[in-house]
Amino acid sequence: AEVDNAIKTILIKIHLATTVHSELLSTGDGVAIYFCRHKKLGDDPFFMAAEVYGYSIASGQQFTMDGGSQVNFYQNGFDSIINFGFKTDAKKNIDVLFSEYSEKLTMPDSPLHGYSVLNYISSHDDLSPFDRERNNPFDAGTRLLLSPGAAQIYYGDETARSLSVAGAQGDASLRSMMNWDELAQKKSRFHYNIADVYQHWSKLGLFRQAHVAVGAGVHQKISDRPYIFKRIYQHDGINDKVVVALDLPIGESVAIPVTGVFLDGEKLKDYYSGHSAIVVNGMVKFDSKNNMVLIGKDVHPSARSDGN
C-alpha cells in the first residue's frame, strides 16, 4: 500500500527482552533506510523510544528493575524513554521544571546528554495524571509543550477531554469518548472554552514543531517578572533560537528583551498571535495583548516532495 510521504513517524509497541533491543535497532536502521529512500521520506535513522514502567528522568541511564537489577536501556538501542516522572515534576515551579530538565538533557556531563525522554501529562493506564480534573488545561499544555524533551499528547489533552467517567472502573475512565462535540460547539467548562483550549495547544505545538530549540535547546532564564527565557540549539550544523515570555499582563503590548539571542533589525514572529515585529535596541514588541509570546524566526514548512 502507498504511504503518504508526510508520515515520518511509525510507532510500534513491542514487548521484548532487553538484549534484543540493540539488534532491533540495527535491523530497524536498515528498514528505515530502505523505506525512506524508496518512499522518499528522507534519510533519518531509525529512532526508538522505550516504555519502561516507572522510569523517570531522575533515573538517568540506569533503571532499577523490580528484582533490584539495573538495566541501561539507552545502551541497549533506545534513544528515548517514556518519562513517568513528568506528571509529578510538572507541579514544580515552572522555571525549576524547565531548568532541571534542560540540565539533565543538554549538559555535557549529564548521563542523558545526547539522549531524550518522552514527557506526558496523561495516558491510557496512568491513574495519576497531571491535572486529572482538567482545572487548568492551559497551564498543562504550557508545561508539557514548552518542557525540554519530547512531548506525547494523549488524545483529548488538547481539548480537556474528561478523565472521569461515571461507572467506569480503573483506567477505563482514562479512555472516555473524544469530546468532538464540545470542541465543535465551542462549549464552556469551568472558567474556559474548549475551543480556546484547543487553540492554545495548537499554537504551542506548531511553535515546538517549527523550532527544535524548544524541546532540545539549552534553557536560560532572562527575567522573573514577567517570566522570560531563551532556548538555544546548536548541533550538527543546525542553529535555532527562541525566546518565550509567559504571564504577561493581558490587554497590554509588552516589549520583550532579546539581546544576545537576536540582532537589531531582525524580523521575528510571535507564534502565539501570528504577528511579526522588528528588533529595535535589543527589544521586540508585537501587536499582541495575549498573556504569552512565543518568539522565533518565521520558519516555513519544507515543500512536500510530491509538489503539494
What's the topology here?
Blueprint: H1 21-39, E1 49-50, E2 63-64, E3 70-71, E4 80-83, H2 86-89, H3 94-106, E5 116-119, H4 137-145, E6 150-151, H5 180-184, E7 188-189, E8 192-193, H6 194-210, H7 212-216, E9 218-223, E10 227-235, E11 238-246, E12 255-257, E13 267-270, E14 276-278, E15 283-285, E16 293-296
Parallel strand pairs: 1-4, 4-5, 5-6
Antiparallel strand pairs: 2-3, 7-8, 9-10, 10-11, 11-16, 12-15, 13-14, 13-16
Helix pairs in contact: 4-6
Descriptive overview:
The chain is globular. The N terminus and C terminus are likely disordered. By secondary structure, the protein is of the alpha+beta class. The strands form 5 sheets. It has a 6-stranded antiparallel β-sheet with strand order 9-10-11-16-13-14. It starts with 20 loop residues before the first helix and ends in a 12-residue tail after the last strand. The protein has 7 helices and 16 strands. 23% of the residues lie in helices and 20% in strands.
Index terms:
single chain; 23% helix; 6-stranded antiparallel sheet; 20% strand; 308 residues; disordered N terminus; disordered C terminus; alpha+beta
